[in-house]
Amino acid sequence: MTKPMSAGVLLFPQVEVLDFAGPFEVLGRATDETGLPCFQALTLGLTPEVLCVDGLRVRPHFTLAEAPVLDILVVPGGPGAREPESLEPVLSFIKAQAAQVQVMASVCTGSYWLARAGLLDGLSATTHTLRLDDFAAAFPSIKVVRQKIVDQGRVITAGGVASGVDLGLHLVERFFGEEARRREAVRLDGPWM
Known about the structure:
Blueprint: E1 5-11, H1 17-29, E2 39-45, E3 50-51, E4 57-58, E5 62-63, E6 72-75, H2 79-82, H3 88-98, E7 103-107, H4 110-116, E8 124-125, H5 132-138, E9 143-144, E10 149-151, E11 155-158, H6 163-176, H7 178-188
């Protein structure tokens, strides 16, 4: 295997913890058949410390200004994704990355970020089950569907909070095959087998 793919997970004020921790865990731990890492998972934040939902403080690996070249960007959700009026630099970062990454993905209401960036126009997408109607009303150019994962090629959306694990496993399989996904699912020891 060559160098691991670079997978960035975006952090912003009031991000949902499981939304970013699930995909970070999967992407950060997935290995190839020889035990080498498939991805280099890293976190990116607007500031050197991010205050998440429920008061958890996280120190991202990089600020957005320091972000390395990425192959994948995962955009989680949370209250900060649904009402991001003061976070224009985050939206600008997402738009800039969309032109460079191989895959732009969202977890839960992270789809609101992708929609605001114009990345879901004319595509099918999903979000948290309790937000599907609101999402459809806010973004009428998107075909909103009730699915766990919606893969539209360069853009992938994942449903609710815990679907970040499903998204991570989907990315492992997409880039490294079914056996790599199976190995990671066995390690997680959950319902993903």
